[in-house]
Automatic annotation (TrEMBL):
Top-level taxon in the UniProt lineage: Bacteria
UniProt keyword annotations, A-Z: DNA-binding, Transcription, Transcription regulation
Protein name listed in UniProt: Predicted transcriptional regulator
Entry-linked Pfam families: Penicillinase_R
Originating species: Streptomyces pini
Similarity field: Belongs to the BlaI transcriptional regulatory family.
Length: 131
């Protein structure tokens, strides 16, 4: 196990996006809009308050949460679940590419048969009138 110079074990680094998923999960369990301190407490309280604010602000920019003024601070609510957050990330990657058709074609042709079939079914359902 890695140790800091102080002799204490070093905390495990979280994977990219892991904190975002944890914050969204906490917000989905909230009884309503909650403040940053509430989210920080649900995450175990070992994160800096500013780290939690940074994650919430990133999620706000991605459209995964909303905030509203409550006194001198903000309260936060989720707009997306984990699947929604993953979809937002995928969309952001796609939006950053110059050749969307090539990226989508490469993505679809690299899918396993079951996923490709599922994607086709989802696209067909999305095209059906009245839904």
């Amino acid at each position: 196990m890695d140790q800091e110079r102080s002799g204490r074990p070093r905390a495990r680094r979280r994977g990219q996006g892991e904190l975002e998923v944890q914050v969204l999960s906490a917000l989905r369990q909230a009884p309503g809009p909650v403040d940053t301190a509430w989210v920080r407490e649900r995450l175990g309280g070992d994160l800096a308050y500013t780290t939690v604010i940074t994650i919430l602000t990133r999620l706000l920019a991605k459209g995964a949460v909303v905030r509203e003024k409550a006194g001198r601070s903000f309260v936060w609510s989720p707009t997306a679940d984990e699947a929604g957050l993953a979809a937002l990330r995928m969309r952001r990657v796609l939006d950053g590419e110059s050749d969307r058709q090539a990226v989508l074609a490469s993505f679809v042709t690299s899918l396993p048969p079951g996923d490709e079939r599922l994607l086709r079914e989802l696209l067909e359902r999305a095209e059906e009138p009245g839904e």
